[in-house]
Amino acid sequence: MTTAEERLRILEMVREGKISAEEGARLLQALRQGEAQHAPPPPPPRAPRMLRVRITDMKSGRTKVNVNIPLSLVNVGIKLGARFAPNSANVDYDAIMEAIRQGASGVIADVEDHDSGEHVEVWVE
Predict the structure, then answer these.
(1) Residues 6+ apart with CB under 8 A from 41
(2) Can you spell out the DSSP letters for 39-98?
(3) pTM of the model as a whole
(4) Terminus of the chain with fewer CB atoms < 10 Å: N or C?
(5) How high is the mean pLDDT in each 10-residue block of the chain (125 residues)?
(6) What angle, 0 to 180 degrees and rounded to 10, lies between the N-to-C axes of helices 21-38 and 3-16?
(7) What does the domain layout of the chain look like in residue ranges?
(8) Which residues make beta-bridge pairs with 33?
């Protein structure tokens, strides 16, 4: 029986005169206290998640771009990543956005453009 059903049953017993209003009030109070004891604790605060974009020159190994963006600004981050990604990269940015919305973490895109000699990595942590 759910808590709402239990409340209705107590109120019905008061209405029918099976218990007094004071007894009904005590039962409702006990029901509330029982709910408070069995309520799950609030989830711990999560650390801010970040979208990370790094573009590396494949010949020298030198990092050309290294951007860390809070997920609260993820739309901007995806647009930024798309701007720096090589034109020949076959990346579905809508799929990346959907994966992030679904709570994905880790590598989201890892693209090497041998024509321009760039390695693009996008991940969430």
Answers:
(1) none
(2) SPPPPPPPPPPEEEEEEEETTT--EEEEEEEEGGGHHHHHHHHHHHS-TT----HHHHHH
(3) 0.50
(4) N
(5) 85 92 91 76 71 90 90 71 66 74 81 89 86
(6) 170
(7) 3-38, 50-124
(8) none
